[in-house]
Amino acid sequence: MATFFRTKVVKNVGTTATDILQTTGTNRFTIIGCNLANTTEDNATISITVVDATSTEAYLVKGIIIPPNSSIKVVTNGEKLILAENCSLRIVSDVAESVDAVISYAELI
Q1: Three-class SS of residue 86?
Q2: How confident is the model at residue 78 (pLDDT cuts 50, 70, 90)?
Q3: Which residues contact 56 (CB under 8 A, 6 or more apart)?
Q4: Domains in the chain, ordered, with CATH?
Q5: Residue 93's closest CA among 9, 14, 11, 27?
Q6: CA atoms of 17 and 6, how far apart (whole Å)
Q7: Is the model's pLDDT at 24 over the cut of 90?
Q8: Has residue 87 got a pLDDT over 90?
Q9: Which residue of 34, 52, 79, 94 pairs with 45 in a disulfide if CB–CB is 3.0 to 4.6 A?
Q10: Largest Cα–Cα distance in the chain?
């Protein structure tokens, strides 16, 4: 099984839920870092969900407030989040084009 370390950068996440990472039927991701930055002058309330292979969606975090021009780390201190085959990580904010996301992960093929 091959392992590749990767970084995903997504700018301007807003009020439409955005799939940040998606696995396929042949790979898995181990998320080892998740940083979200509010790039606006307003508070941004964000939620992150995980969608599994059966399309069941559940909150990883719900309603976290990021102050203006600040950031939060969602996956920290050695914590890991596993996305199995055919799963996705989705982020939404209550402010349009307000959040930049940087995700560090290991892809297992």
Answers
A1: coil
A2: confident
A3: none
A4: 3-108 (2.60.120)
A5: 14
A6: 22
A7: yes
A8: yes
A9: 94
A10: 45
Residue 54 tokens read as 């059966």
For 66: left if phi > 0, alpha if psi spans -120 to 50, otherwise beta; the answer is beta
pLDDT at 52 (0 to 100): 96
The encoded tokens of residue 68 equal: 């203006």
Q: How far apart are CA 48 and CA 67, in angstroms?
A: 17
Q: What residue has token string 């939404």?
A: 92
- Reported as a single tens digit per residue, the pLDDT across 51-67 is 999 999 999 999 999 99
Q: What's the rounded Cα separation, in Å, for the pair 50 and 52?
A: 6
27 by DSSP, 3-state: which? Answer: coil
Judged against a pLDDT cut of 80, whether residue 1 lies above it is answered with no
Please tell me the distance from the alpha carbon of residue 62 to that of residue 58, in angstroms, as a whole number. Answer: 10
**Which residue, chain included where needed, has tokens 């995700």?**
103
Average pLDDT over every residue of 14-28: 95
Q: Which of 73, 26, 22 is nearest to 49 (CA)?
A: 22
Report the candidate in 33, 46, 39, 38 with the shortest Cα–Cα distance to residue 7.
Answer: 33
